[in-house]
Amino acid sequence: xxxxxxxxxxxxxxxxxxxxxxxxxxxxxxxxxxxxxxxxxxxxxxxxxxxxxxxxxxxxxxxxxxxxxxxxxxxxxxxxxxxxxxxxxxxxxxxxxxxxxxxxxxxxxxxxxxxxxxxxxxxxxxxxxxxxxxxxxxxxxxxxxxxxxxxxxxxxxxxxxxxxxxxxxxxxxxxxxxxxxxxxxxxxxxxxxxxxxxxxxxxxxxxxxxxxxxxxxxxxxxxxxxxxxxxxxxxxxxxxxxxx
Length: 244
What we know:
five-stranded antiparallel sheet, alpha+beta, Translation Initiation Factor IF3, Alpha-Beta Plaits, three-stranded antiparallel sheet, single chain
């Protein structure tokens, strides 16, 4: 009989201990919410490949002369070639020759850094005007400065959205959302494929019925930025004290 009574008391104590562990401590109640947002951002660093080839003018202008013409043109456009124009690795570009009818034609390739679509379109058109037509998009990226600015703005927006969601949910159960006791965030980029989209329109010349192609506009694919936040807010009673 004593053993049965002792066993019953032990079971009751164990059940009481388990129940106490499952119940939240006073003042530790919280509401858990998350919010995610995305934004398309135009890269502000555009890297363009340029190749000067003597074949294009059948050797009438040397690579050096064409290079001088290009640098002068870029300076006039305000692109600062001294800072933004670099010669590619010598192994891959500087010492390439093409044999054609006993003539040797040299080539030289460069990388030009630009900041926006308008600048790219202007350079594209200007280089074509001096018979430099081998131009390609190498890569695009968002600068560290722009990335930090966008990240700060999006995290602020996502956290504000999470706070509003917490207030709505807390009010629905007769409580209030207090201060945040936990915040976690994630940030990622979805980079597009490197490509230039050229768009041109056919314009009719007034008076004679002929048509001309307009200068193409250039569109750079945007990078999608994703931000998400997870927040835990203290759950308060409608009077403003901790819910119990």
